[in-house]
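Deviations from the work plan: none for this task. Representative record:
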Amino acid sequence: MIGYRSLEYKEFPLSIIVIATILSLIGLVVLNSISQGEYTGFINSPFNKQFVFLIPAVCISLIILFIPRYSIHKYSYPLYVIGIVMVLLPFSGSAHAGTYRWFNVPGSGFAVQPSEFSKVFTVLFLARYLSDHTLKMKQFTSIIIPIGLVMVPTMIVMNQPDLGTAIVMMTPVLPMLYWSGAKPFYLFLIIAPIFSMLTAFQTLSFTIWAIILGGVILISRPTLLMSILLFFGNIFLGLLSPYAWNSLTPYQQNRITTFLNPEKDPLGAAYQIIQSKTAIGSGGLFGKGWGEGTQTHLKFLPVQESDFILSVIGEEMGFFMIAVVLILVAYFIIQIIKRSFLSKDRFSSLALIGIASILLAHVFVNTAMTVGLIPVKGLPFPFISAGGSFLMTSYLMVGLVLKLSVNYTD
Amino acid sequence: MLKADNIVSIRQYYLAVFITIILITILTARFFQLQILDYDQYSKKANSNRIRKVTTSAPRGLILDRNGQILVDNLPTYILNAVPGELSNKGQTFKLISKLVNYDSLALSKSYGRYYRGRFIPTRIAKDLTFDQISRLEENRLNIEGVYYQIFPERYFPSTVNASHILGYVREVDKGIRQSLNNPTQYELGDIIGWSGLEKKYENYLKGKHGIQFYQVDAYGREAGYVSDFPPRNPEPGRNIITTIDLDIQYSLENIMEGKKGVILIGSPETGEILGAVSKPDFRPDIFTGRILTDDWNDLLLDPGKPLVNRFNQGLYPPGSIVKMITGAVLLDHQDFDPHLTQDCVGAYQFGDRVFGCWLEQGHGKVDLTSAITQSCDVYFYRTIHYYDLDKLSKYFKKFGFGALTDVDIEGESKGIVPTTDYMNKRYGRFGWSTGALLNFSIGQGEILVTPIQVLNYTNILASKGITSKPHFVMSEILNKNKDSLLPAEDWDRITFDMEQVVIHPKGTGKSANPLVNGANVYGKTGTAENPHGEDHAWFIGWLDFLENKYSIVVLLENAGSGGAIAAPIARQVFNDIIDLNSLAAK
């Protein structure tokens, strides 16, 4: 049962709390710079808003600490269903800027993004599914069912449409399957066709991909027929995709690129990236100083309080602070992975690696976007970006990490 | 349930940590590349490629009179903005500017503090500069880095009238005002916003839409052209509004009322259009534009004549005898009432233990309804109160629009008071008042309070025999006319006859309102309202029939004396001016 008696202090992951606090504080400092004299009304200032939302967020993580682990395990199936209902809720309301990502909480004036919470529920669900079933993970078919179950909320989110969150929702599946003993080769089989199609638009990337593909097949030694099918099937798919693409009308192509890149604004996503890179690059080693970022305060930087908040840090506090943030985040995630490895039961272990994957996906997609490594995707940076729903989700994950990473005597 | 053991191997753990480290390292390396290796390139780009977003103010819509003459116009002036982040030495720059344009440098800093919103947002430091002053600044362009000028359309009043309570005034949006708005994004600090009168009521029509331009500026802050990525948005001027005001009539009213305290309203009885409205004392409307001096503002605020108060809209007055037509209509509603039956007026009337006097101390002698209205006899109405009760009388007052807002299109209207049994019980207690209150009420005294705009509405109803629209200041075709004529046709004929007698009968109290011009028929009623603030208020209401045109009039002079002696002659002056204007137009 729960209680401090059974809790071994030595194991308590204090670093998780410390890093979450430091990152939140950095976020507040940056948001305060953005908020200077800009906004009217208390709650319209991103700083105030974030500050206010920290209270329920911390409360959530504290509440999690007092929920018995077996209850989390027990209710993870109902939570999965609740998660699906939640991502359907926004469709009952009116569209926000043409999307159904936000749900207006009746009478409160606040809007929440249910998909943020839903992805954590999905991880818990998958952790229980994979730990309950003594699945023969060495078989290819037994990894298809969990993927299919996660696809349900993912497809709904994709139709909101919110590709970024859908990607994050799918991300934990591969590491969790890997964690529960699935053969890496099978996991590779699943993602190989996606890479084949994506790399096919450029000769160099496609060549590299073909070499990797051949290498993996060589190492894992499937049957000859399987190897031939896999290799040439993928190459064939890759070669076909440009033709398939070209056979589409420009209108259809546009529909697809807009879907893949919904944040495309009238000024062009490339423009946002240029502004972000200019802000970061001109920050130098120690930055221009708090509140002194010209790119930030002249409003060249789009959505600076959430998606592009790292660009503000880069401009005003320089590479030094960026490195601090990234090292802290890396340490944070590695700590969770370590706890997952040390965990005694499989459910906790799987839930922890799932949470680590979600956080890593957020960090990587958000950061890679701000420095122009990947196309613009609207994903916030954990603990730092403004946004009530994701802040609460982040602290929900902190609560789960604290709860699940301590081995109780029960 | 939680029995399943963890089966993760150390190899799996290392792989997961390895992938995490690889991904974070890629990101860190990218930042290193951008911020350390390419720092010079991006730093140069950030400095040379500054784009400044400049909003240009849209001129407000014009306010026109009914004939298209301009009452409120815009005058282009120059304002000076400073970008805080680009001011290298604020004190020195301000000192130089104040020397160049002969402007108090303290005023510059004050304005700067008022409009400051952020380090890179243009902040207004001076306004109402002339082209000459701007030229002198332009010559010293390089010494006043971070300061820019802009054209700003200021409110301007080209006409000869004040019309201050109709037009109202505008204010500059400051931080406090901006926070109180429910659409703050549509305003920037320093914009002008309608703050009273028509400027406020029709703010959404008059207000234009900002233009936005993006300038590329070099390190000296010199504009290096537009930015092609952002197409400029031109400002959209606000829409004009056409008022029902007749500039000539308004001019005449303001002249006649000069130096007096009170209200004159001129309306068109059938349409409810207001042709002229003056509330004196008033103020020059342009006092609020430009650099309003605190002294001027304080003078207005502290003036005992309260020039800022809109008397025709907000002022509450006892109506006195001008409401006797309503009491007459209530009497006529009773089947036993005979309008020809005379009552004896000896100058006073004993009711219970109180004596209610008539305004004419020696008494009117024998009076019937017509002569009671013509000579404004009070005792006649005291002696006939047994034909109705308090609530019936208030019902009729409400029929004629008293005790309710007229919904005139200028804000701040008062509702007034029409006493009912409920009201009296609430105010004085169940047994705290007697029928004596009804005696007062019957001659428009006591608890009843009205606004001049309600009285204009009432006058319009009388003049149009009930078929009119609510009084309004802006041309509109959507106002509904009152379809219910309220009273039987013979009552209306009687009222019209009686009101004509007031002006043409030798004993009529309003005979000095008669312009005595061929073809001009005047109908009216005087009122002398006792009030606790001193001398009686003088009322005259009525209408002029001239060349197929009808003009309703309300004259109120605060604490000036009797309606017949003071208000009626003023009404005649107004009628004479209107007749002159009409003859002028006919020629």
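Chain A touches chain B through 67 residues (CB under 8 Å).
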